[in-house]
Design a protein that fits this description.
The structure is a single chain. The protein is mainly α. It contains five helices and no strands. The chain has a domain of 54 residues: 434 Repressor (Amino-terminal Domain). Helix 2 packs across helix 4. The N and C termini lie far apart (56 Å).
């Protein structure tokens, strides 16, 4: 599935939630957001916080794969030459980095 718009992402979340047998309130509780946020996300609200969107996808067991859009429709020579990126691991590593503290003398 290609996700190009907030509506595409919302549709993916809605479809996956329904397939998992979750209602909006149950998904909201698992994600740690309000039911209203889930409703807005499923409707394609363009200003949804990306962190909550990633958390929602993780709860639903969905991973994202990045592809070079300029290669769409073209035959790639070395298929698989780009390493897969684990977005969750990357975000977690950024959260763990200590912020620089300046010492004043």
């Amino acid at each position: 599935m290609t996700i190009r718009t907030p509506s595409d992402l919302g549709g993916l979340i809605r479809d996956k939630r329904i397939k998992m047998g979750l209602n909006q309130a149950a998904l909201a509780q698992r994600v740690g957001v309000s039911r209203k946020w889930i409703v807005e996300m499923e409707q394609g609200k363009p200003r949804a916080a990306i962190g909550f969107a990633f958390r929602t996808l993780r709860v639903l067991g969905v991973s994202l794969e990045l592809r070079d859009a300029t290669q769409t429709g073209k035959k790639r020579r070395n298929r698989g030459s780009l390493p897969a990126i684990d977005i969750d691991k990357h975000l977690e590593s950024l959260r763990r980095k200590p912020s620089p503290i300046m010492k004043l003398s």
